[in-house]
Specification:
Blueprint lengths: L8 H6 L5 H25 L3 H10 L17 H20 L4 H39 L4 E6 L7 E7 L2 E9 L10 E8 L2 E6 L1
Parallel strand pairs: 3-5
Antiparallel strand pairs: 1-2, 1-4, 2-3, 4-5
């Protein structure tokens, strides 16, 4: 069984390499890891990453968006595949698993990491979208004015959405003011504001 001392990525990439397959695994792990760290650092300093990759490669990378469907062929998915394919394959080779076993283990680990990355991003984007879904569910629901809605202005209302009382910004449908405590009914949603009328 291989130990961490046997798993020396630097010596494999820059010398003392035993086989071409080791170099392929090491290069995949190194490229995937470096791209992941680079992308992660760019995301920390803002949306610079997206613009930089679009400018460098002339390809439109939509780094932080999703349509809610699992899409393995994202930039993050490819980075994860390369990194885990290389690391798992290299470890299997060093554990005397043989070339075929290393390719199979690396492939399974790479595909699994792509799938996991996609599911994690799906979770992030479903959490991001939940606020809009809640607001749409409020149409037709009755509630009360929490913070007075001034004439032509925006106040706040409390309505029950998803089994819980929620407070949203609201304005009146006819532009007239509605006093605190008055009962209302939600008739529409515009941007992040509910449109209400007296109930």
């Amino acid at each position: 069984m291989a130990t961490l001392d046997d798993f020396d990525l630097i010596s494999i990439v820059f010398g003392e390499s035993g086989s071409t397959l080791e170099l392929i695994f090491a290069a995949s792990a190194l490229i995937g890891g470096v791209l992941f760290l680079f992308w992660f650092l760019l995301m920390l300093i803002g949306g610079v990453g997206e613009g930089l990759f679009e400018g460098l490669f002339g390809i439109e990378f939509d780094i932080m968006s999703s349509d809610g469907a699992f899409d393995a062929m994202t930039f993050q998915g490819i980075m994860a595949f390369m990194m885990f394919f290389g690391l798992s394959g290299l470890y299997t080779l060093k554990s005397d698993g043989g070339d075929s076993m290393a390719i199979v283990v690396g492939g399974v680990a790479g595909v699994g990491s792509m799938y996991g990355t996609g599911k994690i991003f799906q979770l992030f984007f479903s959490l991001e979208a939940s606020g809009n879904i809640e607001m749409e569910e409020a149409i037709g629901v009755k509630g009360s004015v929490y913070l007075r809605i001034p004439e032509g202005g925006v106040g706040q209302v409390t309505v029950e959405v998803g089994g819980a009382q929620k407070t949203f910004n609201a304005k009146s449908e006819d532009g007239q003011g509605i006093a605190t405590g008055d009962f209302i009914e939600v008739v529409d949603v515009i941007s992040s504001t509910l449109v209400v009328k007296r109930a």
